Amino acid sequence: CLCVLLLQLLTLSAAAQMVTSFELKGNTITANLAGSLAVMVAIHTGGGVSGAHLNPAYTFSLCLMEQFPWWKFPVFVFVQTLGSFLASGAVYILYYDAIWNYSNGTLTTSGPRETASIFATYPASHLSLSNGFVDQVMGTAMLITGVLALLDARNKRVIMGLEPQAVALLVLSIGLSMGFNCGCPMNPARDFGPRLFTYVAGWGPEVFRRGNGWWWVPVVAPLPGAALGTFLYHLFVAFH
């Protein structure tokens, strides 16, 4: 829970700084960089204790490979989501004055002064639900394939101890190249925990309605994406 909290605290803080400063104190590149470095810090923090399960998609992949017991899957997903929820509350407290100043005293999910996207992802105006679903399947598949390759002792794995840095660079590359459609969450807990927080913190039910009910896509799509990434890696690499 602590490593997920650290990950989300740094990631969402970068988004809050970017949005509330009118991008004077950050932009898409700095937000992606902060999120990637947050992954590195979180893996260093929890890697030796829990394996740094920051993403239910990664946990799901390990379950599919029978490297993690299925009965622990819902427990880990709950803890991952809880950590994301608590981190959202911490960021809200940290940037409370900035958020209310930027939003002119109204917490909205759309419009020129919306602030909901600080916490959860929302689709671009051009994106359909079907295309968004494909986006998340492909992005998560890329993530899981890359992580499996980096950690595979039979492959050209990274030097022992540098795994967090390598995974951070992988996340950065995916975020910079595939983040245009919807911010590339690739993580059900990373999206649902903060979205649930915004629901109870004052943004209201619109956080689940915006984008034609977009909220379920980043929750569901990463799981088949993880399955696809696991299958592709084992079929084309590990099998050989």
UniProtKB/TrEMBL annotation:
Pfam families: MIP. It catalyses: glycerol(in) = glycerol(out); H2O(in) = H2O(out). This is Aquaporin-10. It is found in: Membrane. It comes from the Eukaryota. Keywords: Membrane, Signal, Transmembrane, Transmembrane helix, Transport. Gene3D superfamilies: Glycerol uptake facilitator protein. Belongs to the MIP/aquaporin (TC 1.A.8) family. GO terms for cellular component: basolateral plasma membrane. GO terms for molecular function: glycerol channel activity; urea transmembrane transporter activity; water channel activity. InterPro entries: Aquaporin-like, Aquaporin_10, MIP, MIP/Aquaporin. The keyword Transmembrane helix applies. The chain crosses the membrane at residues 32-54, 75-95, 133-151, 158-180, 213-236. PANTHER family: AQUAPORIN OR AQUAGLYCEROPORIN RELATED (PTHR43829), AQUAPORIN-10 (PTHR43829:SF13). It is a multi-pass membrane protein. Residues 1-15 form the signal peptide. It comes from Calypte anna. The keyword DNA-binding does not apply.
